[in-house]
Design goal:
By secondary structure, the chain is an alpha/beta fold. The chain folds into two domains: 183 residues, 3-Layer(aba) Sandwich (Isopropylmalate Dehydrogenase); 132 residues, Isopropylmalate Dehydrogenase. 41% of the residues lie in helices and 20% in strands. It has eleven helices and twelve strands. The strands form two sheets. Strands 2-1-3-12-11-4-5-10-8-9 form a ten-stranded mixed beta sheet, sandwiched between helices. A two-stranded antiparallel ribbon has the order 6-7. α7 runs parallel beside α8. It is globular, with a radius of gyration of 20 Å. The mean pLDDT is 92. One of its GO terms (molecular function) is isocitrate dehydrogenase (NAD+) activity. Keywords: Oxidoreductase. One of its GO terms (biological process) is tricarboxylic acid cycle. InterPro entries: IsoCit/isopropylmalate_DH_CS, IsoPropMal-DH-like_dom. It holds the Pfam family Iso_dh.
C-alpha cells in the first residue's frame, strides 16, 4: 500500500524542481501517493490565500510534507511562510547536512558538517515593535525548553551516526543572558554523553574557522539566526545552495525542503538544479524508513554528478533540469 505525503509547489523554480523530484521518486519505486497543492506568492495573487485550508488539512493528516521554495517579500508584506509553518507545527529541529561530493570541485575537501538549528525562537520569533518613528526593537527569545530539546537532538544524532564531536555556537561573550543560557544548557546536557566531545565557539570565530579549516567541525548546534547564516556558509563550502538539503522535525510532524530560495531570476528557464530538493526528499524517505530507496537515489545522483555530462550551470555544467532528471532516472 502506498504511503501518502503532502507536497507544496511553491514559487519561482519551485514547480520545476518539484516535478523533477517526484518523477525521480516514482522511478525509484518510493511507493508514495502525493497530495499536491500550490502555495506561496503566486497562489495568493491567484486565489487570495498563501496556503489553502485544504493544504493545511492535508499536512495535518499525512504529517509528512515535501515543500519546495516559497518567495518571501523583503522588508514588507507577509512574513516567511517557512517560519509560520515551523511555528504552527512546532517543527523545532532544522537539520542541514553539508557534505563534500568529489564530483563537485571547490577549494574545500572532505567537508562533512551537520548543523542543528533551533527553529522556533531567537530573533526569528519575529517579536518586533516600533518604539518611535526612528527606533525599532527586535526581541531575542531563548528558552530552556527549546534549547534543551535541540541540543539533546544534536547529541542523540551524534551517538546514532557515530559522529565524534558536537560544537555549540553562540555569542555569549556579549549576549550573556540569552546565549549564555544556551551555552550553559549545552554543557549540562553534554555530561550525559561522555562518549562525544563537546566544545563551544563564538559565532564570528566559527565563520572564520569554517573557511580556514572546515574539517574540524562535525555536528554543530546553535540558535536560530546563527544556524540560518552558517548553514548557507556551509553550502558554499560544498558547491552552493543547490546542494544543501534540510529537514524540519517536530513531535509528530516533519517538513523537508531545500535550503535555497525560489530563484525567480531563473524560473521558467529550465536550468534549475533539483539536487538539494532531491536530497531533502531522500532525508524524507529515511525518516519514513525507506532507507534502501534513499540509498539508490543518492547513488544515482553521485553517478550523474561524477560523470558531469548532465549537470546544471550552477555547478559548472550546461545541462537543463530535464536532462539532469532523465540522467538520474536512467541510473536508477
Amino acid at each position: 500500500m502506498s504511503e501518502r505525503i503532502t507536497v507544496f509547489k511553491g514559487d519561482g523554480i519551485g514547480p520545476e524542481i518539484t516535478d523533477a523530484v517526484l518523477q525521480i521518486l516514482d522511478a525509484a519505486g518510493a511507493g508514495l501517493k502525493y497530495e499536491i497543492y500550490n502555495v506561496g506568492e503566486a497562489e495568493y495573487e491567484a486565489n487570495g490565500a498563501l496556503i489553502p485550508d485544504a493544504a493545511f488539512a492535508s499536512f495535518e493528516t499525512t504529517r509528512v510534507l515535501l515543500k519546495s521554495p516559497i518567495t518571501t517579500p523583503v522588508g514588507k508584506g507577509f512574513r516567511s511562510l517557512n517560519v509560520m509553518m515551523r511555528k504552527k507545527y512546532d517543527l523545532y529541529a532544522n537539520i542541514r547536512p553539508a557534505k563534500s561530493n568529489a564530483a563537485v570541485k571547490t577549494p574545500f575537501e572532505n567537508v562533512d558538517i551537520v548543523i542543528f538549528r533551533e527553529n522556533t525562537e531567537d530573533l526569528y520569533a519575529g517579536v518586533e515593535e516600533i518604539v518611535d518613528k526612528d527606533t525599532a526593537h527586535s526581541i531575542k527569545i531563548i528558552t530552556r525548553k527549546c534549547s534543551e530539546r535541540i541540543i539533546r537532538d544534536a547529541f542523540d544524532y551524534a551517538m546514532r551516526y557515530g559522529r565524534r564531536k558536537v560544537t555549540c555556537v553562540h555569542k555569549a561573550n556579549i549576549m550573556k543572558l540569552s546565549d549564555g543560557m544556551f551555552r550553559d544548557i549545552f554543557y549540562e546536557i553534554s555530561r550525559k554523553y561522555p562518549q562525544i566531545e563537546a566544545e563551544d565557539k563564538i559565532v564570528d570565530n566559527v565563520a572564520m574557522q569554517m573557511v580556514m579549516r572546515p574539517q574540524q567541525f562535525d555536528v554543530m548546534v546553535m540558535p536560530n539566526l546563527y544556524g540560518d547564516i552558517l548553514s548557507d556558509l556551509a553550502s558554499g563550502l560544498i558547491g552552493g545552495l543547490g546542494l544543501l538539503p534540510s529537514s524540519n522535525l517536530g513531535s509528530g510532524y516533519a517538513m523537508f525542503e531545500a535550503v535555497h530560495g525560489s530563484a525567480p531570476d531563473i524560473a521558467g528557464k529550465g536550468i534549475a538544479n533539483p539536487t538539494a530538493f532531491l536530497w531533502s526528499a531522500c532525508m524524507m524517505l529515511e525518516y519514513m524508513g525507506k532507507m534502501d530507496c534513499a540509498a539508490r537515489i543518492r547513488k544515482a545522483v553521485d553517478q550523474v554528478l561524477g560523470e558531469g555530462s548532465a549537470i546544471t550551470p550552477d555547478i559548472g555544467g550546461s545541462a537543463g533540469t530535464a536532462d539532469y532528471t532523465a540522467a538520474v532516472i536512467s541510473r536508477l
